[in-house]
Amino acid sequence: MREVKFKMERENLVKAGDKVEILEKKSFHYYYIIEPAVAMSGCIGPGERIKSKFGIVKEIEKTDRGYYVIVEFDE
């Protein structure tokens, strides 16, 4: 299992246990968006690309900077 952290600006857009679809975008590095524009990952290098299109939300972390969605991928 692989875990990736995504930044979410508003609460209650997803919850633990939800199956989510991700969209891959490429600039200099890769980044991923939980569809439909729920949360976005940080930059991920070419050697660390996410191979799965779907993941399961493990947990939501609330911080003073916003919400972070931890997603597990079967990789």
Overall form: globular
Mean pLDDT: 96
- Which percent range describes the beta-strand content? over 45%
Number of self-contained structural domains? 1
* Number of beta-strand segments: 6
Please estimate the helix content. under 10%
Alpha-carbon Rg, integer: 12 Å
Largest sheet: spatial strand order: 1-4-3-2-5-6
Helix segment tally: 0
Low-confidence stretches: none
* Oligomer status: single chain
Structural class assignment = mainly beta
Could you tell me how far the N terminus lies from the C terminus, measured between alpha carbons in angstroms?
5 Å
Element string (H = helix, E = strand): EEEEEE
How would you describe the overall organization of this protein?
With 75 residues, the chain is mainly beta. The protein has one domain (2-73). The protein has strands spanning 2-8, 19-26, 30-34, 39-41, 54-63, 66-73. It has a 6-stranded antiparallel barrel. A hairpin with a 4-residue loop joins strand 3 (30-34) and strand 4 (39-41). The chain starts with a strand and ends with a strand.
